[in-house]
């Protein structure tokens, strides 16, 4: 499957019906998902993939479309129901699990690919909970963060290592009342991290 074809397929997925501002539920744009997945594929990192905080399933479903064994983890039951429906509509299998990422126990995960909440809201779990679990369960991590997060990420994941950082344009669609534009493009950073498991 070519990147543009994957992007067009993911564009058809149903998004959040009522996104939670508190949980920072911003859907991962299809263009961003396709970019991340193709970067991971180029590095042979799409074996068994886990999408932490999978929302409506775009990254997990995209990984499955590219031949990965995919697992999607989400605490929001409504988002998870949409994710299951999205996978079914595309005829792909994803193991969806309803769980709190802080308490998640999984084995056999090669790569975590995630768009975690950035921690802008106090009630949000923020990226720390997601990074901690990702480091515990996987050998590789592809994770999106606010631009300018490098020092924090490098310090937080030590002794694990940031291998690469990519700046990616993230077209943020209007999904909350306070948004003033239909689409606002923000720059986010994609971190590729390798974990040193004993």
TrEMBL record:
Give the Gene Ontology MF terms in alphabetical order: nucleic acid binding; S-adenosylmethionine-dependent methyltransferase activity
Give the family from UniProt.
Belongs to the methyltransferase superfamily. PrmA family.
- Identify the keywords attached in UniProt to this record, alphabetized: Methyltransferase, Transferase
Domain Methyltransferase small, chain residue ranges per copy? 37-130
Record protein name field: Methyltransferase-like protein 5
Is Methyltransferase tagged as a keyword?
yes
Pfam families according to UniProt: MTS
Question: Is the keyword Transmembrane helix in the record?
Answer: no
Q: Which Gene3D superfamilies match?
A: Vaccinia Virus protein VP39
Do you know which SUPFAM superfamilies this protein is assigned to?
A: S-adenosyl-L-methionine-dependent methyltransferases (SSF53335)
Q: Which GO terms describe its biological process?
A: methylation
Q: Which InterPro entries match?
A: DNA_methylase_N6_adenine_CS (IPR002052), rRNA_MeTrfase/Polyamine_Synth (IPR051720), SAM-dependent_MTases_sf (IPR029063), Small_mtfrase_dom (IPR007848)
